[in-house]
Amino acid sequence: xxxxxxxxxxxxxxxxxxxxxxxxxxxxxxxxxxxxxxxxxxxxxxxxxxxxxxxxxxxxxxxxxxxxxxxxxxxxxxxxxxxxxxxxxxxxxxxxxxxxxxxxxxxxxxxxxxxxxxxxxxxxxxxxxxxxxxxxxxxxxxxxx
Length: 145
Description:
mainly alpha
């Protein structure tokens, strides 16, 4: 083999290796993208379900007076509508819309995220306290479960 033949063989081998690596990287990226989209979709469904549960809790909560009861119903309806819209919206559309809003109104976006975080934490804490305060029921044999 001559120096020129060896050089040509090395270049061809390097090109084949580069193409193979590019193909493998493309497949890996596709798999990772699919997994990320599936997880994001699952998260979207979970948030939507939590919103629907929150709406039901608001509807079921007794209002101190007629005005409070009406406000709770309006908020519950809004939360339920938002949850259903979230469930039906494509993830990419949701991300683009969120990004646009954040760029146009950064202060409102940060404030909304903070309020949503506080509301979610309060809701989860209240849900946990209710579960902890559930009375123990006697079984039909007269013993505690």
